[in-house]
Design brief:
The structure is a homodimer. By secondary structure, chain A is of the alpha/beta class. Chain A has helices at 12-22, 73-82, 97-111, 125-136, 152-159, 175-182, 191-194, 209-217, 235-241, 276-296, 318-324, and strands at 3-8, 27-34, 48-50, 63-66, 86-89, 114-116, 140-146, 149-150, 164-173, 195-203, 227-232, 247-257, 263-273, 301-303. In chain A, the strands form three sheets. Chain A has a seven-stranded parallel beta sheet, with helices on both faces. In chain A, α1 (12-22) packs across α10 and α2 packs parallel to α3. The first copy, chain A, is globular. At the A-B interface, α1, α3, α4, β13 and α10 of A face α1, α3, α4, β13 and α10 of B. β13 of chain A pairs antiparallel with β13 (263-273) of chain B, so a sheet runs across the interface.
């Protein structure tokens, strides 16, 4: 029998989950759940239900994939839905993970459900790469670079500036910093040395471009600590050249072994993604499989990628995996 | 209490395990076991025992790390020692893994011990990278490149040629093939297109160098399918410039998502290692920690890297890992 998946929330991520399920023959999409009027949603084919009807479908959904935002949706929804379903979310507010974990754990344990939180690539695949690398090379340094990719938060910050119609911000790793890290020299790098920021901005006609540029590059937290380049372009150019949502990055650990640390080793994990939400969705779907299997084993409570035996992510049996991939 | 580790076999790998244990404050080395005369071994400080005394030390060793070779040692030793100890090995004869798994599993289950086999980087970290990437991107292609690094087997094959005093063979990925794979174009690559082989050979005085070179480049299985370069050098040059045992490689998966596969994604994992045996030893030691913890949980039987929740590899608690690495 297929694993029956529900999707809660139908933005870019929820749509990505709908598409990812099609690539996994052991899964089927039971339905999309939304706070909006179900008839207003245009899915790629999935049936749509109002969020209020989810609780009546407890027995026809094996795992609910929660596709809301980390700021306000998931802190409420993940504990709430973990009382009814096995759930997977992509909660990514790093500082609040311990608190989110605790809330989800108590809800899931009480209900006998499995919840896997903070699934995606960072947190997610990047995190587990850091874990493996750190366990193998205890004496070393970790580096994470993001990009080249679109930062939604930084793009939004630019859009709030007076006179800005639309904007797209790319985070870009500094190539010389990447090379220094890859050399195994364990450099100390400042924020400015690791990433640059490039902004494509559509301004209102007659707006003061110099003021807008100054407001961007001097914006605290977002841009002031970086070398930032601003390009003013037309709305047509923005839509033509910057409508994708690419992202990616690099997790690198360099460490030393030997009698006196004479041998250097570099472990690098990198992603180059055409579509950040579709890739994140694909990770969520693989972990939905693991949540289902853990639930079948009788487990319950909150887990993260650190707790999941990798074999549970694959549709293949242990025997097949050992034969083909080991 | 520290995890008490035993080492069976004291070649490059065993010595690497001895050094790796020093980097892990939650571990201590209980002893090195050898088939040789214990007084003939010069360790970096570890006590040495004859292999026959291992069985009498069952209660003072938590995990035995088996550092023998895959050809003849491990097929016998891993099942044998899994009857007495939790064990970890680096068995790397891919074709025989299913058979080795079965033999070790039945021995470990009967004794209530945990055995983790085929631990290292390939099989090992490369394998688990293939698993994560394949689970996340079901529609895609896998590529593994090895090098730049020393292949012991190929170096040995050259040494068996008449007139050769010593030799060192490097396996080198072809840069243009790597770039094609990274582009996401999913190229079909032949053996010759993926790797080149470079050989440094010390010949006997007066040996027929043209004949030696011809025997190398035309050697079936080892060199005939590759573009191979042969350099004749002096023994001094070999010892000065080629005494290290570096290795590494790349595991890359490219895949597609979207309504019609319109988005491409590339996942890359790579290693650049100054010392192949010391790095492999460091992986073994991290998995020894996991074997010990699984044993404390009451588990038994044979496992591979696919079965191990990553958190078990780290000395840090789940709470610390979530706070620092997630």
């Amino acid at each position: 029998m297929n694993i029956r998946i529900g999707i809660l929330g139908y933005g870019n991520l929820g749509r990505g989950v709908e598409l990812a399920i099609r690539q996994n023959p052991d899964m089927e999409l039971a339905g999309v759940f939304t706070r909006r009027d179900p008839s207003s949603l245009k899915t790629a084919g999935a049936p749509v239900y109002h969020i209020d009807s989810a609780s009546s479908m407890k027995d026809s959904i094996d795992v609910m994939v929660l596709c809301g935002g980390s700021a306000t949706d998931l802190p409420v929804q993940t504990p709430e839905f973990a009382r009814l379903f096995n759930v997977v979310d992509s909660f990514d507010t790093h500082a609040n993970i311990p608190q989110h974990f605790a809330a989800v754990d108590s809800a899931a344990k009480a209900a006998g459900k499995v919840a896997i939180i903070s699934v995606g690539w960072d947190p997610g695949l990047f995190s587990v790469s850091r874990l493996y690398a750190g366990a193998v090379l205890p004496q070393g340094s970790d580096y994470t670079f993001w990009g080249k990719g679109v930062s939604q938060g930084h793009s939004d910050a630019i859009r709030r500036i007076e006179g800005v119609l639309d904007a797209r911000q790319y985070t870009i790793p500094v190539p010389s910093a990447l090379e220094a890290v890859r050399s195994g020299s364990s450099p100390e790098l400042t924020t400015r040395q690791k990433h640059t920021r490039e902004c494509f901005v559509v301004a209102e006609e007659g707006a003061d471009l110099a003021r807008i540029e100054h407001e961007i590059v001097s914006m605290p937290n977002y841009f002031a600590d970086y070398d930032t380049t601003v390009h003013f372009i037309s709305m047509e150019e923005l839509q033509r050249d910057h409508s994708g949502i690419p992202h990616g990055g690099f997790v690198i650990r360099s460490g030393r072994t030997g009698l006196e640390g004479e041998h250097s080793h570099v472990i690098e994990y990198s992603l180059k993604l055409d579509s950040n939400p579709e890739f994140t969705a694909s990770v969520l779907v693989a972990f939905a499989r693991a949540a289902y299997r853990l639930s079948l084993e009788g487990q319950s409570g909150c887990k993260t990628i650190f707790d999941i035996p990798p074999a549970l992510l694959s549709p293949e049996s242990g025997e097949e995996l050992r034969r083909k991939l080991l």
